[in-house]
Amino acid sequence: MTTPYHPPRKYSVRIDGHRTSVSLEPIFWDLLRSAAARRGVAVNTLVATIDAERIRSETPPGLAGAIRVWLASHEMVSRHEMSGGIAPAALSNGVAEEA
């Protein structure tokens, strides 16, 4: 991929045996596949986990938004941990401060 700026692509995923489609930009699909591979699970399994977390939230976002947020927060925390750095508190506990 020469640039990260591409329109979303729709893929079909299975969550608890039900098919649904999710539209994400290619960079997020790549990150999702990598995150699933690092965890040793299928992409569908990771999406189902993210979906379950999303549904339990006080104000559930759409699935595509939840996947993007999950990737941004979990991947940033993982990269900080792997590099020996300290993850920002807002990312490690899932709470962001508002101005």
From TrEMBL:
Q: Which InterPro entries does this entry report, sorted A to Z?
A: RHH_dom (IPR027373), RHH_sf (IPR038268)
Domain (Ribbon-helix-helix): give its ranges. 9-73
Q: What superkingdom heads the lineage? A: Bacteria
Name-wise, this protein is: Ribbon-helix-helix domain-containing protein
